[in-house]
Specification:
Blueprint lengths: L2 H11 L7 H15 L7 E2 L2 H8 L3 H13 L3 E4 L3 E4 L14 H6 L8 H9 L22 H13 L15 H15 L8 E4 L2 H12 L5 E6 L3 H9 L3 E8 L2 E2 L3 H4 L5 E4 L13 H14 L2 E5 L24 E6 L11 E4 L5 H12 L4 H12 L2 H28 L5 E2 L6 E5 L6 H10 L5 E2 L13 E5 L5 H29 L1
Parallel strand pairs: 5-6, 5-8, 8-9, 9-10
Antiparallel strand pairs: 1-3, 2-3, 4-11, 6-7, 10-11, 12-13, 13-15, 14-15
InterPro entries: Aminotransferase_I/II_large, HTH_trans_reg/aminotransferase, PyrdxlP-dep_Trfase, PyrdxlP-dep_Trfase_major, Tscrpt_reg_HTH_GntR, WH-like_DNA-bd_sf, WH_DNA-bd_sf
Pfam families: Aminotran_1_2, GntR
Keywords: DNA-binding, Pyridoxal phosphate, Transcription, Transcription regulation
Length: 502
Amino acid sequence: MDPTLSEWLAAQLSEPSDEPAYRRLTHLFKQAILSGQIGGGTRLPSSRALGQDLGIARNTVTHVYEQLQAEGYVETQTGSGTYVADTSPDMSGAPVRSRQSHHAARDHQRLSRRGRRTIELSGVSKVQWGAFMPGVPDVTEFPVKVWTRLQNRIWRGARPEQMTYAQGGGYPPLRRALAEYLRVSRAANCQPEQVIMTTGIHQSLDLAIRMLCDVGDEVWVEDPCYWGVRNLLLSSGLTPVPIPVDSEGINPSAQQLARPPRMIICTPSHQYPLGCVMSLARRRMLLEYARLHGCWIVEDDYDSEFRYGISPLASLQGLDQHGNVIYVGSFSKVLFPGLRVGYMVVPDSMADLFALGLADLYREGQTMLHATLAEFIYEGYLGTHIRRMRGLYAERRDILTRAVRSRYDDRLPILGDEAGLHLVLALPHLQDDFGVVRQALERGIVVRPLRTYYSSASTAQSGLLMGYACVPHERIGPAFETLAEVIDHCSKEKAGISMQTS
């Protein structure tokens, strides 16, 4: 062996480290071989000689050689010794690109077109907690002790079939519990076999799209709508068609009605993000339109459990008489987002097909988690938790709305505060809600700009989505005062710019 390499190995091994010597020496050899410091065909010294040079046991070197041979770095020739294998890649026939152009390319340019589109349209926030993050429940109120007790009980009686891949649409007792829960709370028309367990609304939508749509199909989406829906459709090769929303919900024009889509995705019980409720007349129109034209309707029921002053509304699915509605929901809002448990209710004739598609595409599991959730529902803890949190969130909503009206009267209207975990604070049409969001974040306040939920800047309204569910009572007032200072500061900046340009 080249004595300089032997010295290098010895110097590296002399550095303090908690890692075993054989692992360090293996890594050093790999590093030297891959970098070309030890060329292909080089004969390595015997394990005895190298052990003496490095001051380590011969067995350690033998172990290292065996590991290198197993991974293809060296080859052993009986009676001859150990040699470095030729691992240089064969690039003959491959097109040559300049090293300079490769390194000059930015990472996002190496993505696929749909990958770049996904990143460009992403609305994911780096902050997922605090005043006034929309759509996040107060996870600190979750009954951890109750859940842990149920979970421990489930694990003590764990069976092999509960620890392998899930089949048939999910854990049967949980599907039965959910079917009963949805029949009572949402007037859903479903049997346990129609309930398909997923990891959340995103996966439910993805499965519905994959099973029912082809690349290029048009899909109606509400305008404004949740940014994740548009992103999912675009990344799947579908064409989202924005349909405006009024006080009665999704409101297609005559021109739009003349071109039926493959699918319609909507939020009838609590439009996201504006908060309106789809009227019965509009629901019946949508169902009849789907029947006449063979459209699928996906009903996204993301937070209907939290309505203040009136009972939860009946689902659109419960009115469907022709099997055109797919209902999707999750436990992210009623329990906690990290649970990652969602569900969909599909027409009875499609249930086996969706269950098979789910298993084939995603290889579902989480049966032990689903078993714990089923017990949580059967023993009444879900209903108790929802009632308790509904009262808590109603109090926080009231504190926030009073703070807004105390500061602004009716100058800044409040939208969509009758239900859910957020409200919308409307801003003057030309005010820059992006600027407010940026400056608020610098002061520790998280809000979302309403304009990002619209498909076009020309039709977008300016406003702020404000979540109140995860904000302690005593924090709401001071946090809003900070936000109000930012809003007023941005208004003055805008007024100053307008005067300079006039």
